[in-house]
User: Fold this.
Amino acid sequence: MVQWRSVVRRLSSNQSTPGPAPDAPPSWTPVFVVTYGRSGSTLVQGLLNALPRTLVRGENGLFFVDLFRASDRATTFARKHGTHAPRLTTSAFYGAHRIREDRFTYFSRRLIQRTLLGPHKSEEYDRVGFKEVAWHELEAGETEAFFDWWDQVFPDAVYVLHTREREALPHSGFWRYQPVDEIYAKVDRVVEIQEHLRRTRPEQVVETRFEALTTDDDAAASETLRDLAIRLTGGCDDELLATLMAVRAQRHGPRGHDEGDEARDVEAELAQVEEPQTDG
Assistant:
């Protein structure tokens, strides 16, 4: 059982475990698959996990969008009332000046790394991320602001934009009981997000397509997989290509990553929490 009082005492006395600067971005390249349901995204996940020094987790329900919304709402509120004497104890907005965007960025990154991406030894990976099919839940009016915020949370991310012919999508349990027009509306929303990323971050985009990955033409598939590996890792020898082709033949993934004793208990995690240093 976690001894919460001892944890709080350590946090309040700033006895945190030494490590990188509190606001330091990850040492690995973040990789995120942006797609929709029934696109073959689990195959893409398996292919990415077959790449050396690469760890790509599965879906998470796009929960991090609510972190963005919380950050946007709180910091907008703080700016709005920044002239209302927030440093005075008599102010209705006392303490609002302590709401800082950099703190939301820092703790959002830590939360995602520690919970979503899970316990892993950073020195063992050059690329870490996840695939997600619920991007349609990001509202159209939020797109630009969200990815600007996401750039701060995970700088220099790589976006794997995965697509598939629309006609194949409704025939899946994922979309069960949903009218076809609603399915296509959600897919079109993800396509809009993909196009935004192509337009605004072309150097950070890698394209994959289900039909190209699963074609009966082995030579063409090999070329597609080799190109994917080169784009993400800088190279692809025959051994790696053979591994990718084997994953492709299974039509699913990912390969397992043994987390063994990498997991840490809650008390150890909390004891390492340290706020970014700011002037206010």
Remarks:
- The longest helix spans residues 180-200.
- The chain has one domain: 26-270.
- The radius of gyration is 21 Å.
- Residues 4-22, 260-271 have pLDDT under 50 and may be disordered.
